[in-house]
Amino acid sequence: MAPVMVLWLALCLTGTWAVEKSNFKTCDQSAFCKRQRALIPGESPYRALLETMELTNTRLTLQLINDKNKVRLLLELYRLQGNMTRVKINELKPLKPRFEVPDVLVKEPTTEPMSLLSQDENGVVLSLGVESQRVILSARPFRLDIMEGREVLMSLNSRGLLAFEHLRIRKDTFSYKVTSTVASVWDNVKRVFSSALGSFCLSFKLLVTPFIPLLPKQTAKEDGKDEEGMWEETFKTFVDSKPNGPTAISLDFSLPGVEHVYGIPEHADTARLKTTENGDPYRLHNMDVYKYELYSPMALYGSVPLIVAHNTERTTGIFWLNAAETWVDISSNTTVFGKMLDYVQGSNEKPQTDVRWISESGIIDAFILLGPTPKDLFAQYASLTGTQSFPPIFSLGYHQCRWNYNDQEDVQAVDAGFDQHDIPYDYIWLDIEHTDGKRYFSWDPHKFSSPKEMLQGLKDKKRKLVAIVDPHVKIESSFKLHDEIQSRDLYVKNKDGGNYEGWCWPGSTGYPDFANPEMRELWAQMFAYDKYEGSMDNLHIWNDMNEPSVFNGPEITMIKDAKHGEWEHRDVHNLYGFYVQMATAEGLIQRSGGVERPFVLARSFFAGSQRYGAVWTGDNIAEWEHLKISLPMCLSLSLTGILNCSLSHAHMDTPRREPWLHGLDNTNLIRDIVRQRYTFLPFWYQQFYHSHKTGILLIWGVSVAECCGYIIQRKLQRKDLLVHPVTEEGVTSVTAYLPGKDEVWYDIHTFKKHNGGQNLYIPVTISSIPVFQRGGSIIPKKLRVRRSSTCMEHDPYTLYVALGNQNTAEGEIYIDDGYTFNYEKKEFIHRKISMANNIISSINLAHDAHFTTQSWIERVVIIGATKPSKVTLKAAGGQESKLDFEFDASVSLLTIRKPGVNAGEDWTITLK
């Protein structure tokens, strides 16, 4: 396994079977998508009623009217702290509240003042307070343009595709007929008898007044003929009753000057999103898609409705806060079959990408992230949905997983095999077969009769175990969890009010209503040691099937008219997995008394899921193409804040895959690469710390880092490590792009120096993966690899100093206890390591922090160096000493041995 920056969790299955696509809808089979997509651009019926505008210190509100049906909407516009703008659109007076997504935002965003610059009958201009940024609101048709100087950064409804299907009473229902009849009679009475029968009219009015509230309140002119699928929809044998009728929303965004857009995971596609004009839109609808199709806009297990737009001048984003089924159309006026046209129309023409969001229900709640740099944008998004949870360091080690290890003796044998073959690992995983009859929070009484003994054996070696806990509950009266959920009425309901039942691994299954905070608290309590019998502190959790997966449901998930309290499942669907992981993470924190950081992996996710743990890319196939697609999939997740992505898992019907079962040569290769991964753990851990604190990406595609369109599969790690994975069978060479014309890069294996800004031809073998360290960086490593990461806690560091063109370099060392929340109490070491003018120094970056370490600096390796005549060390106490060194002139490599200073103290090394 290459020294990649995240835990690989891409499920590998043998065989060449493909997904059964007929189980999943296309846009034409999704009534609301088909209906909205049929709208014609440029014919917007919406007009802004400027006379209704109200501007306070924190927001602007005004009404929009649909001139076709006279339904009014309420527009809210906010300027947010951090160079963001928020746009909300809802019905002015809905028949009932519409769903607004809770819990995803870490807090209500801080607003900043807007000021009115000008106003006339055509619209208004507002200042956004940042340089020359302003919003132009045009009245007829309604349109928003966000500008900076003379440049349009983004336009809303410029194509006129805003649509908002208002709540209404069905025309053919009894209530509608009664109220319509009453209204009609009353109108006739008023018209014919108003003068002659005034007293009768008054009596009649008193009679019918109680029925007036039942009339459609805001429809002066009702919409036209109902279309198929508006009030009921059938897919295969499944019927969606749609009791609230059509509720879809849509809005288009135009991005002038932009030809590259990324994001909206999860899709098995390139990181750069393609135009969808000649096919289906990208779909966001969390589903169990076994052995998914490649290069497809089909929905997969998770959804993050964030698009990142990028060009050489600016990076912007659109965060569409809606948890219902969503389709995203992307079009461009500069592409044909994904390639740029020559600008034959003239040099002033700019590319433009248009993005249209279509959701089945809810409201329009869009956050416009204005960058301008990638770093700014990622910080903006993190301020809304949070940063990646800071994982315990051992979760970044090697994991061994399959469906299923047979019993606890099998676990012990696999554990011993790693020791026998000198391969480190941190976790072994158990799938569903470890439970007692698929009753989660239990153990098979025959195969895993002594789980604490098994866990203690792993703990003695400083290793851990992950057990699967799925969010469906076996319906069985003797099962305590089922009884408690049922007694407290915390199951999802069907449309008739009974408990919703589906079919999953246990057979007949109930689905806890995780949208209910009371259910989440009950779930969290289940992880207490006295309730989850046999569990210990080295047991961590895997939430699978949390889309939710329903084997006998439409599209293998829950029927949309199921109920979560007052809300339909269609409103909250993409939040279900988010809530499951939230409750599980909270449970592991609670069981430790709030002390320990949890490790929770989930298959389904939404925006904000990064706060609760890791995700994986789902059920793929063990083929080269699926390996290749996992890279842009993880990069897309990274762009949306989910940095801890991707396992080496195996189906129960596949051959065993322990590293020593593939012949001696392969065992040696696997051992070497896994051990190499462990040497980099200090580096990966400190990168996760930075990402957790700031929201900056853990991994970058070169195209993002370099503001150009280079192949996204090439990965750039904080501009310090560049990895070019080999993803094609039998290749003997690859061509890697080394970015930065003023940069230099060093092969980490040969220490050979290469200039940046070039495509580099690299011969490769089965045992080589091209990895380069950027000149100007310093990377800490631990070279004494032991059986697990925890065993390496106090081991010494080796610093790899790669000199840049100015013979300077910078890096950091971050150290804490590796697994608790004590870093939040300033219990850590954070030091800057730098080299300039032939002096290497370690300086404290956190003077208010306190932590001690037994680790020391064992050696310093300087790449691109010249041979010194003498090397001296000045330690914290002021004493100086001479250090031994070796110099390899063939690769300009200087190795300074045994400085012996504590990694948490000040020191300097001088080269003379």
UniProtKB/TrEMBL annotation:
Protein name, entry field: Glucosidase II alpha subunit
Q: Which UniProt keywords apply?
A: Glycosidase, Hydrolase, Signal
Q: Which GO terms describe its biological process?
A: carbohydrate metabolic process; N-glycan processing
Cite the Glycoside hydrolase family 31 N-terminal domain residue spans from the record: 76-329
Cite the InterPro entries for this sequence: Gal_mutarotase_sf_dom (IPR011013), GH (IPR017853), Glyco_hydro_31_C (IPR048395), Glyco_hydro_31_N_dom (IPR025887), Glyco_hydro_31_TIM (IPR000322), Glyco_hydro_b (IPR013780)
The record, for Pfam families, names: Gal_mutarotas_2, Glyco_hydro_31_2nd, Glyco_hydro_31_3rd
What's in the GO CC field?
Answer: glucosidase II complex
SUPFAM superfamilies membership:
(Trans)glycosidases (SSF51445), Galactose mutarotase-like (SSF74650), Glycosyl hydrolase domain (SSF51011)
